[in-house]
Amino acid sequence: MTMKQEPTLCAVIGGSEKSADGSHTVYKIHVSQGAERPTAVCVARRRYTEFRRLHEALAPVLMLRPFPAPKRWMNNSAVREQRKLLLQRFLDDTLTAAGNSPAASVWVLPRLLEFFCLLSESDTHAPCGTAPPVPTSEATASARDTEPSAADSPTHRARRAPSADSSWSVSVTQEEAQPSELEAQLLLERQANARLDAQLADARAAISQSQEEAEASRSLLAALTDERDAACRARDDAVEEARVHALEAERLRACEAELGALKAQLECHAPPLESTPTHGHVEAPPAMKPSPLKPPALPLPLDSLSDQSDAELQPLAHAINDIAFRANAAGSVALAYHLFVLAHSMLPRRPAALLSAANMALKLRQPLEALVLYERALTLPLTEEQAAMTHSKVEQAERLAHDIDIADRASAHGTHQLDSWLECY
Predict the structure, then answer these.
(1) 84-94 pLDDT per residue, tens
(2) For 164-189, what is each residue's pLDDT tens digit?
(3) Which tens digits make up the pLDDT trace of 264-297?
(4) Using an 8 Å Cβ cutoff, are 328 and 336 in contact?
(5) What does the alpha-carbon distance between residue 265 and residue 247 come to, in Å, rounded to a whole number?
(6) What sign has the CA pseudo-torsion 70, 75, 81, 82?
(7) SS3 at position 330
(8) Cβ pair 53, 41 in contact under 8 A
C-alpha cells in the first residue's frame, strides 16, 4: 500500500515574538522541509498553552519528562529567551521519542506534523502559518482508542539524523499499519501495571503489619520495663530495710557491750550500788506513772564513788553520758534517767549530768524527783545560762506537780463519791 510522500522534518528552529495586543508571547517555529522542497520553510506561531496541550497529549504515549517551564508572566527578554530554549528542548525530546518508538509514531507523528503546519491543506483544512487547534487530553485519549482500529491508516516511522547544519532531522516513511501489535503492547503494559499495583498493595500491607508488630513490641517492652523498674525499687527497698535493721542490731550490740564494760569497771572501782547504807538505788517503774507528792529517794552521789579521783572517773562518766544520750534518742527515757544519775554520782561536782537527769525525770512526769534534782543543781557552780534554764525548769516542774495533785484529788473525790452511791444502792 502506497501513499503520498509527506514532507520530511529537517530542522526545528525556535524563535519568539510578541503578539499584536501584547497580552501574551507567541513563539515562531521555522520548519525546513525535505528533499522535495528544500527551500520551502513553513513558519508556525504557537503560544505557551498550545505547547502545554501538546505535551499533555503526547506525554502518556512517549513517557516524556514533566513540562520544562512553569506558567508565569515574563517581563523581560532574558526570561523569554530561557523559555524559548526550554520549549525547543521539549520539541527535540518529542521528536527523539517518536523516532525511537515505531508503534507510538502511528499516532504521534500526525499530531506533530499538524502542530508544525506541515500537513497538506486538504488534511488540515487550514493554510500553513495558521494555528490549528491542538486536541485536548480527552480528545487525544478518544483518538488513541479509535485510531489504531483502522487497518488502512498509515504508520510513520521517524528517526533522528544530523542534517547539514548539525541540527536534527526526522524522516517520515510509510508502511502498513499494524493495530494488533500496538494493542498487544498496550495489553502488556496494562498487565505490567496491574502486577506493579498488586506488588505495591502487598508492600503496603506488609508495611502496615510491620508497623502493628512494632507497636505491639513497643507496648510489651514498655510493660516489661515498668515491671523491671518496680522489681528494682522493691529490691532496693528491701535492701535498705535490711541495712537499717542490721545497723540497729549492730548499735544495740554495741550498747550492750558498752554496758557490760561499764559494769565491769564499776565492779572494779566500787561495791554494788545496793550496798550503800545512806541512799537506796531507785529503779524506774515498769509503767511511767505520776509519783505522789513526797520527797523521792534518789541515787545521789555515792560515798564509795565520791572519794575517787575525777581524773580516773571522768572517761567512764563521759562514756555513761554518751550511752544515756543514745538511750534517750532511742526512746528509753527511764534508762537514760538512771544512767545520768550514775554519771553524776561519779562526778558530783559537775552539774551537767545532774541537769540531764532532772530533765529526764520531768519528761517521765515525775515532778517531785525533778524538783529535788534541780534544787541540788542550784547548789553547784552554774553558768548564767544554766542557772536561767534551771529556774525555768523548776517553775515547769512545780506547775506539773500542781496539776498532778489536782488530778489525784479529783480522782480520789470521784472514787469516794462513787463508793457512797454504791452504798446507797
Answers:
(1) 788 888 888 88
(2) 333 333 333 334 444 567 777 778 88
(3) 666 665 444 333 333 333 343 443 343 433 334 4
(4) yes
(5) 27
(6) negative
(7) coil
(8) no
For the four alpha carbons of 267, 270, 273 and 277, in that order, the dihedral sign comes to positive
Long-range contacts from 269-276, C-beta under 8 angstroms, 24+ separation:
269/305, 269/308, 269/312, 269/313, 269/316, 270/302, 270/304, 270/305, 270/308, 271/304, 273/299, 273/302, 275/304, 276/302, 276/303, 276/304
Three cell numbers, residue 153: 491508516
Residue 16 amino acid letter: S
Write phi, then psi, for 203 (nearest 5 degrees).
-65, -40
β-strands 155-157, 173-175 pairing? antiparallel
Residue 11 three-state SS:
strand
DSSP per residue, 112-155: HHHHTT-S-HHHHSS-BTB-PPPP-HHHHHHHHHHGGG-TT--E
**DSSP label at 6?**
P
Q: Which residue has the cell 498487544?
A: 184
More reliable by pLDDT, 317 or 106? 317
Cell of 69: 517551564
Which phi-psi region, left, alpha or beta, contains residue 166 (left: φ > 0; alpha: ψ -120 to 50)? Answer: left
Helices (H) and strands (E) in the chain, counts: 12, 8
C-alpha cell of residue 29 = 517555529
CA distances 128 to 7, 115, 198, Å, are 13, 10, 49
Q: Which residue has 508495611 as its cell numbers? A: 207
What Å distances lie between residue 349 and 199, 306, 310, 344, CA to CA? 104, 9, 9, 8
